[in-house]
Amino acid sequence: MRSRARRGAPPRRPTTPMATASVCIKPRVAEPDRHAPSGLSLSPTRVSRGVGPAQTIAPMPRSNLPTFLIVVCLLSVACSGALGEAKDPLAGKYIGNGSGAALEPITALTAQFKIMHPQVEFDLEDTGSDAAIARVGRNDADFGFISRDLSAAERGKVQLIRMLDTGTAIAVNASNPVQAATKDQIRDIFSGRITDWGSVGGLAGHPIRVIRRETTSSTRSSFESYIFDGAAPTYTERVVDVVESAEMYQALRSLKDGIGMVTLQVSTQDDATIRLLSLDGVAATTNNVRSGAYPIRRPVYLIVDSDPAKLKPAVQAFIEFMQSPEGARILSGF
């Protein structure tokens, strides 16, 4: 847009437009300062162009010039930075659904990926493995994260990409003096044959309160597969049922004589309000899961559409990052 020159003002010199912005900042002509000190000359200047009468132009007070230049420079830098930011071709919001057992490592991976690509957003939700598989298969989610193998009916619907192994631990309240148990003791406690903590080295006269996850929980299925040797599990009639890991942790904190099943991960290992029992002499730690020493383990997978052609570029880039040395370094902490 051309600016219209005022009559009588000297013609403007042509200026070179900024490479990063098309914004033109038009300076304001300052009025003479009638209250300026007598030592500062603000007398108008008479200019004659050779055509018509001489025109009088008031100069800008010197005291305002430095401030004016600073403001113009700051505005120019701000405009050029905002308008000159290149758009990341991976920019967008991507939905990830999955198991709470896989939420910690996937959160760490996506956080680092976002540092590399600030215009990428991730919306992660703990939906459980069953729902995650179904949603990724329907393209309702861009990717998923699960902590179990696929069932026969689920195979072919999604593609599995192994991330790491996690474990299932047996947990009690931190005030419980019991530190360890055997596989047989755990089976007898959950089935109701052992009902008092005094029978396994705890405080006599304290009834055991068994807490169980929901039937679709991968934590529960891996627990039952190992503790009950693949047979149909039997539980005490007084079992307390909870839904999702957060309710399990809250129940263990509230019930001083409670015992339950939890995912063996950094957050549960470091939680001072609960204690993870050693199982058959093996401490329940993430290091023992990684080494294979801890017996109740299960895989954690990233899942995507079974058709590679349907993968969004950002999801493909995230998979490559997860499989890179930096991704492996992050996963090694879990």
Brief descriptors of the model:
single chain, 334 residues, alpha/beta, D-Maltodextrin-Binding Protein, domain 2, 2 domains, two-stranded antiparallel ribbon, 10 helices
Briefly, what is this?
The protein has ten helices and 13 strands. With 334 residues, it is of the alpha/beta class.
Order of helices and strands: EEHEHEHEEEHEHEHEHEEHEHH
**pLDDT under 50 segments (min length 5)?**
1-60, 68-83
Total of domains: 2
**Estimated radius of gyration:** 34 Å
What proportion of the residues form beta strands (DSSP E)? 15-25%
Can you count the beta strands? 13
Textual characterization of the structure:
This protein is of the alpha/beta class and about 325 residues long. It folds into two domains: about 90-165 and about 300-330, Periplasmic binding protein-like II (D-Maltodextrin-Binding Protein, domain 2); about 165-300, 3-Layer(aba) Sandwich (D-Maltodextrin-Binding Protein, domain 2), CATH 3.40.190.10. The chain is about 30% helix and about 20% strand. The protein has ten helices and 13 strands. Strands 3, 4, 5, 6, 8, 9, 10, 11 and 13 form a nine-stranded mixed beta sheet that branches. A two-stranded antiparallel sheet has the order 1-2. β8 (about 210), α5 (about 220-225) and β9 form a beta-alpha-beta unit. The longest helix is centred in the N-terminal third of the chain and has 19 residues, at about 65-85. The protein is elongated. The model is unreliable at about 1-60 and about 70-85 (pLDDT under 50).
